[in-house]
């Protein structure tokens, strides 16, 4: 066999080291942070698989800061991430969907670069009881030592993300990562316990006649979204919606289409959280050549955050499909 045509075996670990070697000045701190996230995701994947057997499905009877019912596994996944990231010197602050306040792990002193990690530990967790796909979403920002307090260091626009990614716990465990130079995909090989690189430089298809939105809310969408849905249905678009963003966005990353969570009467700013849902997903989609907007001409990544738990409307996916939605938001299209 010709060795040049044989794909090499690259694990997430070696991929990160390979990327780090392109920056001779890098101290390796970010690599340690990413390794903490990848280990957390292995533990969470295992918990998700054993959930029914270990009786950790269902809610804990409390609500998180968003007023949403916490599932037992939300709490477990959050603990896993906090404990794993907590052991890494390079992590200054973590912020989670499940914690009202950010957790300050280390002070501002010391010379080494440090990072803030924001995450949704188990997105789409209401899908767990029915064995649907769920995921972890994360965003990494450089810690701003000059900032006045944890909130100020965290409240950076998405364009400043150093890295972002998600892990889909589906029929296999998939780790999708961007370090700002394209998007790479890894699949956990349960036999050896390592993530193997399966795609490098992923590109999202520029078009695909498919939309992903909770159409049950249609009557309370702004009229532009309703016009878009009429337009798409007249053109035989497919509708695909799992109710778990990681699975929906992953499908769109690979096959194309558009994912939307518009404003509704109940959620006038949409439902999804800017800092640890919309921003990391938007970075992934843009790095793969797609678009991610919160309104016509307004990139999600340029939104100046004012609260770590703030929400944003979101339209992301294939460039041409996002454009179709936006045209309808601006004016009726025939
Ligand atoms: P969660 O973070 O509480 O799990 O909520 C986020 C999820 C997304 O994964 C999904 O796209 C959306 O909520 C579904 O909401 P809805 O049921 O309103 O369509
Ligand atoms: Mg979520």
Q: State the order of secondary-structure elements, H for helix, E for strand.
A: HHEEHEEEEHEEEEEHEHEHEEEH
Q: Proportion of β residues?
A: 15-25%
**Secondary structural class:** alpha+beta
* Strands ordered across the widest β-sheet: 4-3-5-6-7-8-9-10
Distance between the termini: 56 Å
Overall pLDDT metric: 92
What would you call the shape?
globular
Q: How much helix is in the residues?
A: 25-40%
The largest β sheet comes out as: 8 strands, mixed
Number of E-type strands: 16
What's the alpha carbon Rg, rounded to whole Å? Answer: 20 Å
Q: Which ligands accompany this protein?
A: 2,5-anhydro-1,6-di-O-phosphono-D-mannitol, magnesium ion
Count of helical stretches? 8
Record the SSE blueprint:
Layout: H1 12-20, H2 29-49, E1 59-63, E2 69-71, H3 72-86, E3 91-96, E4 103-104, E5 115-123, E6 134-142, H4 150-154, E7 163-169, E8 173-178, E9 183-189, E10 194-199, E11 210-212, H5 223-234, E12 238-239, H6 245-255, E13 258-261, H7 274-287, E14 291-295, E15 298-299, E16 314-317, H8 319-330
Parallel strand pairs: 3-5, 11-12, 11-13
Antiparallel strand pairs: 1-2, 3-4, 5-6, 6-7, 7-8, 8-9, 9-10, 13-16, 14-15, 14-16
Residues 68, 97, 120, 123-125, 214, 243-245, 271 line the site of 2,5-anhydro-1,6-di-O-phosphono-D-mannitol.
Describe this structure in words.
It contains eight helices and 16 strands. It is an alpha+beta fold and 334 residues long. Helices cover 30% and strands 24% of the residues. The radius of gyration is 20 Å and the shape is globular. It has an eight-stranded mixed β-sheet with strand order 4-3-5-6-7-8-9-10, sandwiched between helices. The protein has a six-stranded mixed β-sheet with strand order 12-11-13-16-14-15, with helices on both faces. Strands 1-2 form a two-stranded antiparallel sheet. Helix 1 runs antiparallel to helix 2, helix 2 (29-49) runs antiparallel to helix 3 (72-86) and helix 5 packs across helix 8.
């Amino acid at each position: 066999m010709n060795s040049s045509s044989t794909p090499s075996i690259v694990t997430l670990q070696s991929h990160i080291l390979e990327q780090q070697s392109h920056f001779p000045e890098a101290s390796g701190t970010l690599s340690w942070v990413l390794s903490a996230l990848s280990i957390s995701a292995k533990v969470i994947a295992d918990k998700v698989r054993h959930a029914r057997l270990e009786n950790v499905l269902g809610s804990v009877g409390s609500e998180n800061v968003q007023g949403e019912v916490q599932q037992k596994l939300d709490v477990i996944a959050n603990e896993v991430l906090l404990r794993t990231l907590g052991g890494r010197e390079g992590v200054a602050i973590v912020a989670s969907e499940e914690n009202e306040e950010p957790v300050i792990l280390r002070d501002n002193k010391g010379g080494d670069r440090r990072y803030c990690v924001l995450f949704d530990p188990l997105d789409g967790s209401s899908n767990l009881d029915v064995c649907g796909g769920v995921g972890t979403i994360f965003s990494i920002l450089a810690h701003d030592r000059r900032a006045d307090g944890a909130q100020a260091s965290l409240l950076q626009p998405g364009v400043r993300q150093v890295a972002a990614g998600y892990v889909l716990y589906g029929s296999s465990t998939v780790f999708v990562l961007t370090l700002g130079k394209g998007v790479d995909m890894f699949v956990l090989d349960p036999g050896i316990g390592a993530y193997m690189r399966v795609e490098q430089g992923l590109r999202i298809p520029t078009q695909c006649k498919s939309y992903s939105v909770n159409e049950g809310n249609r009557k309370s969408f702004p009229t532009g979204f309703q016009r878009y849905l009429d337009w798409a249905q007249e053109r035989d678009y497919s509708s695909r919606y799992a109710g778990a963003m990681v699975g929906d966005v992953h499908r769109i990353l690979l096959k194309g289409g558009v994912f939307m969570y518009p404003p509704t009467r109940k959620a006038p700013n949409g439902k999804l959280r800017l800092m640890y849902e919309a921003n990391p997903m938007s970075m992934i989609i843009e790095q793969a050549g797609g678009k991610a907007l919160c309104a016509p001409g307004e990139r999600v990544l340029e939104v100046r955050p004012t609260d770590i738990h703030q929400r944003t409307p979101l339209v992301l996916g294939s460039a041409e499909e996002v454009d179709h939605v936006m045209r309808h938001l601006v004016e009726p299209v025939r």
